[in-house]
Specification:
Layout: E1 5-7, E2 17-19, H1 22-31, E3 39-43, E4 49-57, E5 62-71, E6 79-83, H2 88-100, E7 105-110, H3 121-134, E8 142-143, E9 147-148, H4 149-154, E10 161-165, E11 184-185, H5 186-190, E12 199-203, H6 211-219, E13 223-227, H7 235-250
Parallel strand pairs: 1-3, 6-7, 6-12, 7-8, 7-9, 10-12, 10-13, 11-13
Antiparallel strand pairs: 2-5, 3-4, 4-5
């Protein structure tokens, strides 16, 4: 069995002693059934990964002695996910998978057709932390507060590309806009980008963006409309599929686990 991993919001260095909080103690002592002398891998998003040894252990507390570094910190690609929140469990799924796929920033975006009007950022941060612990990731993504699409676009940083998953055509009288004005395939669009350029991915709500939003997005120089193929994907499926392609083409999928 692999040595359990924990994210700890504490400085990590040889000789440090860290008292574990309630949730960490429950996971280590109750779920994983570790005891004094057992080892735990720990990371904080800044100091790489370290080994720690459980010392004083009781039913509710435990002290972890930091012994040695096993991996240096590695930078995560500058890849942001913007998505319209969906139902609770599907939003959790999107955040979990985005973390596993190496996204550095996760930002819920409110559109005209967004069905969820409340986003619990603390819950999403907890979901991201658990995903990072389980997938050998050395940091956590930043999970931002929900913001309107209009504000995101108004404040868009110079030099950052926005990949806009746009499955619609230009004819409003036809289902999904018929064929005219369709975006190019994601893979082909990615080949035109500088791999060192920061990238954001925008996934819309169930039912897609409305005409006004689509027109605004298509008018911006930073936006690259893309298609995800011949089928209309659910929002959570689209996020995973697009992120996988991005990481494979211009991301960090050339690296191996623990590299």
């Amino acid at each position: 069995m692999a040595t359990p991993r924990l994210f700890l919001d504490s400085p990590l260095h040889e000789g440090a002693h860290i008292e574990l909080g309630k949730e960490a103690c429950h996971y280590i002592l109750t779920v994983m059934r570790l005891k004094g002398g057992d080892q735990v891998r720990i990371f904080n998003g800044q100091d790489g990964e370290w080994l720690g040894e459980l010392g004083d252990v009781s039913k509710k507390t435990a002290i972890l002695a930091v012994t040695r570094q096993v991996r240096e910190q590695r930078k995560t690609p500058d890849l942001e996910l913007l998505f319209a929140p969906v139902k609770k469990t599907r939003t959790d799924f999107i955040v979990e998978k985005a973390t596993e796929l190496g996204v550095s920033i996760i930002r819920p975006v409110l559109t005209h057709r967004t069905i969820a009007d409340k986003v619990r950022v603390e819950r999403l941060m907890a979901t991201a932390r658990e995903a990072a612990e389980q997938t050998e990731r050395l940091d956590l993504p930043d999970v931002e507060d929900a913001v309107s699409l209009e504000k995101v676009l108004k404040d868009w940083p110079e030099g950052r590309v926005l990949i806009f998953c746009d499955e619609a055509g230009d004819n409003p009288g036809e289902d999904w806009g018929a064929d005219a004005g369709r975006a190019g395939p994601l893979l082909e669009v990615l080949k035109t980008l500088d791999p060192n350029q920061p990238v954001s991915l925008l996934i819309g709500p169930e039912g897609g963006f409305d005409d006004k939003e689509r027109t605004l997005l298509r008018s911006l120089d930073c936006v690259r409309p893309v298609s995800l193929g011949p089928r209309i994907l659910r929002a959570d499926t689209a996020a995973c599929a697009a992120l996988g392609v991005i990481q494979a083409v211009i991301g960090d999928w050339s690296l191996t686990p623990r590299q």
